[in-house]
Amino acid sequence: MFYRPEEGHGLPHNPFNAIVTPRPIGWISTRDSAGNNNLAPYSFFNAIAYVPAQVMFSSTATKEDRDDSKDSVSNIRDSGVFCVNIVEYAMRDVMNATSAMLGKEVNEFEHAGIEMAECATIDCGRVAQAPASLECKLTQIIELPGKNNRLVLGEVTGIHIRDNCLVDGRFDVTTFQPLTRLGYRDYGKIESVFELRRPDD
Prior knowledge:
This protein is mostly beta strands.
């Protein structure tokens, strides 16, 4: 099969969503200027540089109570900061609860019964029991082709790691089994890892 995206695929569901997988989930926490907390998952998320440590996520829709974005992007525009919380398999249901299209005044931490802790380097909440959280300062918001598509770039200013995720000095993902986004309504979890050495190592 071959198709041009602008001409359509002719399938019951968009295969593009399932081709680039698995994708890590950035559980983005933000706070607006009035002090309202927000928490929402984004599967267009990744780390993009080591030094300085940098991450990105993209938002591809808007809400009725926002002019041209979702709560996360709007809050980041105002505050200049955000926190990325890593999602473990055990948190799949509460993470999913925070994906609901709720009013901008609704605190998703409270809505989903998630314990919130304060960040150390930025004015923002974080998921207290997350395997890791990355405190970030905004570097750029890039307008992408298409309606309401925005790429948010941030520099990591602080990192929280849950103690039981460190094994022999390494951040061991098998201790918490990261939740990953697949296509359609499908998810996966990382249960095992293996090592490959580069030929020039």
